[in-house]
Amino acid sequence: MFKTRSRKIIRDIMARKGRSILVILSIMIGVFGVTTMTSITDLVNRQLDKDIRSDQISHTKVNVISGETAISRADNRAYLGALQTELAPSGVIDIEGQAIFPVVWQHGDQQANAVMFSFSEPFGEGNLETVSRIVKGRYPEPGQSEIAVEPRFAEVNNLALGDTLCFPNTGNEEWEIVGFLLHPYFTELAETQMMVQVEDRILANYEDAQRIIGFSGLSAIHVRYETTPQSMVLPHFL
What H or E segment, with its residue span, contains residue 12? Predict the structure, then answer.
């Protein structure tokens, strides 16, 4: 009985070779498609875990307005350090600042708007929503007319390492692009409450950004706590 049924199945398959092949191919494509999608998803998730670390995301962000007097990086660090010490009993483990302001840049005949990012900590030393990693090149050195850009900024504007940008506040001084730095974190411009697109991001050391733009101090303070529930209680300085 089983042999007869097997022969019938084989005869049916051989009689409809074209249809059978299509069915087999459809099944194979479906299986391989699912496998490929799973592999791509795994790759994307692994890359996201590498680029966006949960321990670098701040619990609280406070927009600040600086006075007219220019505040140095050292003064910022002293203030943030004292604030962190004062708030340590509340579970605060890190406080860092950012200075994020709009800027106009020029490269040859090309001119456009962008947003410049600088941080209270030197490149490579910050922990809260700062540069994720170097994609190409290196970090800019302070006082050397060096800047970095987000890789997608370079791609959109057809810029390469070694190219230079000029800014209105520094006249004809040329600022060399020495690094493509990945900054994947969601960021709003305090003035407009609008998200800053990654393709609009230029990065510089705090002192250099201050000279390029002319701002007096930080635009935001980021705070991280030991646990998320601790962050639900606003510190007294807010």
Answer: helix 2-15
Taking the alpha carbons at both ends of the chain, their separation in whole angstroms is: 83
pLDDT at 25: 60
- Round to whole Å and give the CA distance between 60 and 223: 5
Q: What is the dihedral of CA 176, 178, 183, 187, to 10 degrees?
A: -10
Instruction: Tell me the Cα Rg of the chain.
Output: 27
3-state secondary structure of 223: strand
DSSP 8-state symbol, 143: T
Closest CA to 220 of 27, 29, 84, 58: 58
Judge whether 219 and 101 are in contact, CB under 8 Å. Answer: yes
Task: Check if the beta carbon of residue 202 is closer than 8 Å to that of residue 99.
Answer: no
- Averaged pLDDT, 203-229: 91
23 token code pair: 């069915």
CA 193 to chain centre: 18
Residues 8-66: tens digit of each pLDDT: 555 555 555 556 566 666 666 655 555 555 555 554 445 444 555 677 777 888 888 77
Is pTM beyond 0.85? Reply is no
List the one residue out of 115, 112, 117, 196 whose CA is nearest residue 157.
112
